[in-house]
Amino acid sequence: MTGTIHGGWDGGEDALALIDAHHHLWDLSDRSYPWLCDKIEPAFFLGDYAAIRRDYLPDDYRRDAAGHRVVATVHCEAEWRRDDPVAETRWVSGVSARHGFPNAIVAHAWLDTPDADEVLAAQAAFPLVRGIRSKPVTSPAPGAMVPGAPGTMQDRRWLDGFARLGVHGLSYDLRVPFWHLAEAAEVARAFPGTPIALNHTGLPLDRSEEGLALWRRGMEALARAPNVHVKVSEFGLPGTAWDYEANRRVVLEAIAIFGIERCMFASNFPVAGLRISYDALVRSMARMLAHLPRADQARFFAGNAADFYRIALPAAA
């Protein structure tokens, strides 16, 4: 898993360690991922995703991350068929035992079903499981939310399930469109003891000034809850090339809002590979943060994720 960055960002043995706080692996041989094997998701946030409808296994990740000093990774649930989410955790745990990574797992469990607590307990029993990602029901556009609808972050059953995360010592990975961030902030304030990792920088998919203003207000609301951290990742947009300057603005604003101590690097590979290579992503992020003290860069690229996901690293890393 380890390598060295050559040129452009500290090259050589002095390169900073990376913990990838969010990536996926999948084996499509048993068709356990409906969105990758069967139906096409017409509303997929990056548009056409045919290029990732193939196996993505440890050797594929190693090839993508080659040349970078990746010392640990966090696997995030990848929409395994929802009737047996524990099976994905079992499979990923086996992958880790054979390959040495992932080093932590964010598993899946519905929070609003009658068996929610049973599934949470089963997931928490795996040594590598640190948290749960369970996407709440969201609206297709700003202003279209139905308050309190089943499965939403205002649903009493969903909130009761969320309360069980703390009982099982689990964190929560939050993935919602940016127009739901303020609503998510209310949940974060209601459960201050549950660590929350906001996925993909809050998904600022509307880069108009109006869209960014709404994203910014949601990010600021979340940042007022000290239990919320941010995975600074996935800046891809549908039908648009990866834009360094536009994405730099988002990265620097997110860090300014949350503080470097609550931000962590994540690749979202292979999904992010629809827009940018792993190498170009790391180099771009390093360039964006080159003005920061080296200690802050080290926290962003590895230390914060190690703390949040309780990953023990050798002293050399």
UniProtKB/TrEMBL annotation:
- Recorded coiled-coil stretches: none
> Which Pfam families does this one have?
Amidohydro_2
Q: What Gene Ontology molecular function terms does this protein carry? A: hydrolase activity
All residue ranges annotated as the Amidohydrolase-related domain in the record: 19-311
- Give the source's domain of life in one word: Bacteria
* Record InterPro entries: Amidohydro-rel, Metal_Hydrolase, Metallo-dep_Lactonases
Keywords of the record, alphabetical order, are: Hydrolase
What protein family does this chain belong to?
Belongs to the metallo-dependent hydrolases superfamily.
Q: Please give the name of this protein.
A: Amidohydrolase
Q: Which organism is it from?
A: Xanthobacter tagetidis
Its taxonomic placement starts with:
Bacteria, Pseudomonadati, Pseudomonadota, Alphaproteobacteria, Hyphomicrobiales
